[in-house]
Amino acid sequence: MSNSLWPDTAQVEGNSISLAGCDLGRLAVQYGTPLYVFDEKTIQQSFRAFRDGLDAYPGDSTIFYACKALLNTAIAQLLDREGAFFDVVSLNELLLLRHAGIDLRRMRLHGNGTPLNELYRAVNMGIGQIVLDNQAQIDAVATVADYVGRKQPVLIRLAPDITAGSHTHIQTGQKASKFGFNNARMAIKRVQAKPALQLQGLHAHLGSQIDDLTMLPQLIAFLHDTAASLDMPLQELCIGGGLAVATHPSGSTTDIAAYCKTVVTQMRQIFGSQLPHLSIEPGRSIVGRAGVALYKMVGCKTVDAHTSWLHLDGGMGDNIRPALYGARYHAAVVDRPRATPIHTYHLCGRYCESGDVLVKNMRLPAMQPGDVVAIPSAGAYTLSMASNYNGIGRPAVVLVRAGQHYLIQERETIADIIKRDRPLPENIRS
Ligand code: LLP
User: Fold this and answer.
1) Which among 92, 70, 99 is positioned nearest to 282, based on CA atoms?
2) Per-residue pLDDT at 307
3) 218, 268, 306, 393: least CB-packed within 10 angstroms?
4) How far is the centre of ligand 1, averaged over its atoms, from the C-alpha of 241 (Å)?
């Protein structure tokens, strides 16, 4: 398909859409809906585009996959195979990666409110790096590192006061952000005073869905100038993630090669021959376009000549992004993708909330209950933010590769959901 919202292997063949040679309609029948289908090749190619782009960097570089975008065992293993490092935000993400066989030294822990026990476990297990976000965290990590007798490699996260990103909820570079230090001098001094911490460098992440590459020189210059003005040796510099990925034809996608080229050029220009280790943390740009969500149409309500609600069997429980950020998505009918659109539908979810609308104003052919709708570019921050609202289990996930499909995450069942519940004790039951 020429449309860049779809995975690399997407094809329209006759009356079907396939990914990696697997017919989406058949996958929907075999695994049920809602179903998330991931194209291995698109994930691989996206990761390799970063790798190839950073090959031009004369210093060392590392790509940390931001697990918050999408995480399960198979996805982690796939990226591990490609040589990824991993950025985690919780002990549980770390433990899942360890379960997937990932070396702790290839992980970095982030977060503004990470509890002490999680910091302790991470340090004790030997996590590669911790990105320090605030004063309390400097003290906490120093205390636990000292306690376990480890010199913990750390970076300091700064708020560079650069506003970027498409929605206030996903902007993180501004001074008023909850993330990172505004006072670099204070943070650096505090870390340097802790013998159990090994300060390796500076970190900043401006936010998400950033399609403006002109932010990069500003960011790199900020980190360089901060370190230089404070006489801090800068072994490593991390510029976070945040590349935009379109989820609708009106959206924009940051070209990975162009992003890397801008970064490499700026690093060379600003640092000259004293190039630090460069790290980046892309999430969405690796998995976003690789994932297609499949839903079944359950029914339809026509309100007037302009409004027809098309009820789908999933919605905000598996993709909260339209409700939370006003994100716009696109859709196609899997068994007649090229049929002439004759109606405008709002594709709404099944959840008991009026804001549960996945796609607004979508032109589609006449629809019948049972039709399967595919929403492309649904791979990032959908499953990872999914909930059990209305008691509905989270979707199954399938990976497709060279004509084969593999179930990589089971559909959540009622047994999974009630496993955590405990009955009211007999003595207070009646
Ligand atoms: N590094 C740090 C420190 C981050 O906070 C994030 C994302 C990333 C890297 C990866 O950013 P990416 O390349 O994926 O844009 N739930 C929101 C996005 C929240 C992003 C949180 N941090 C959404 O659905 O748009």
Assistant:
1) 70
2) 81
3) 306
4) 7
